[in-house]
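Q: Could you fold this chain for me?
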Amino acid sequence: MTAVLRHRLRPALLVLTLLAGLVGSNGTALAADPKPLRIGTLVPKNSLYHRQLLEIGEAWRAAQGGAGKFLVFPDGSQGGEAEMARRMRIGQLQGALMSVVGLQEIEPSIAALQSLPLAFRSWEEVDHVREKMRATMERKFLDRGFVVLAWGDAGWVRFFSKEPAFRPTDFQRMKFFAWGSEPAQQEIMKSLGYTPVPLETNDILPAIQTGMIGVVPSTPYFALASQIYASAPNMLEINWAPIVGALVVTRKAWDEMTPEAQTALRNAGEKAGVQLRAQARREVDEAVDAMKKRGLTVNRPSPEQLKEWTALAEQLYPRIRGTLVDAATFDEVFALLKAYRASAPAGKTR
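A: Sure. Below is the predicted structure, expressed as structure tokens.
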């Protein structure tokens, strides 16, 4: 080979050498390992919700040939939901399964699905409103740098108290657990004669045990899993509001994924959302039955007492509109409910 020919071939040989370093023994290009996904949540370890997150992670990893780490941090180990939202923004977490309490730290209008007491009469109504508003909500989250992968819920909020209580005025002498990240809600409660005590979720159990608080608004499942009912053995049977949630990941983490990983994650999230909603709704009655066997007293308000709760909710709405929930979204929810009730069978609105 002449010196001239070797000179001409040198760039080509260099390119081939570099390519050889990027090709495995099976002849396929080796992609860089995907960046780990760290997912935070308050849900208990080994619960249905935790298991669903792990299944989503397996689907995501399988789409990448088993590469990548999908790490789930349950039990609030990454802090409360407001803290998890902060951690996602600074890159310490790439995603979280949260209720509206945390989601509204990202997009405030989401509060309309959870912060309207006695607005929803059935799960069918919750589903209808969520699906009607879903596309708009997901666009709002995307604009703020987050991708919604799954929508779920965790049951109806009931009031668990140390002492029996049936009417709104019964609770005015008790101290309420309140989310530390919701000062506007606390001000509304105070204006109506209630005493909120702002805490994080991990502080609820010691607070109820020591008498720091006397009432915990909670879903039956969470009350059972956290053992709240043991110190607050009275439950008012009223569906005050649904706990609605979603699994979100940061747009930055999403954009760094391969198209195959994105598709797998979205499909697994959609499937998990359906299963989470179905299971959570079954668990309301199952959890109540389990707690009743362990000493829980279920207090059922009379029709007259229910009217007092309805009157309280109607008194709350003007305070919520424009504060906890922006006026336009508030009006949209009630317009959707009105239209649904006008067209739905009676059994679907009770």
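A (continued): Residues 34-348 form a domain with the D-Maltodextrin-Binding Protein; domain 2 fold (CATH 3.40.190.170).
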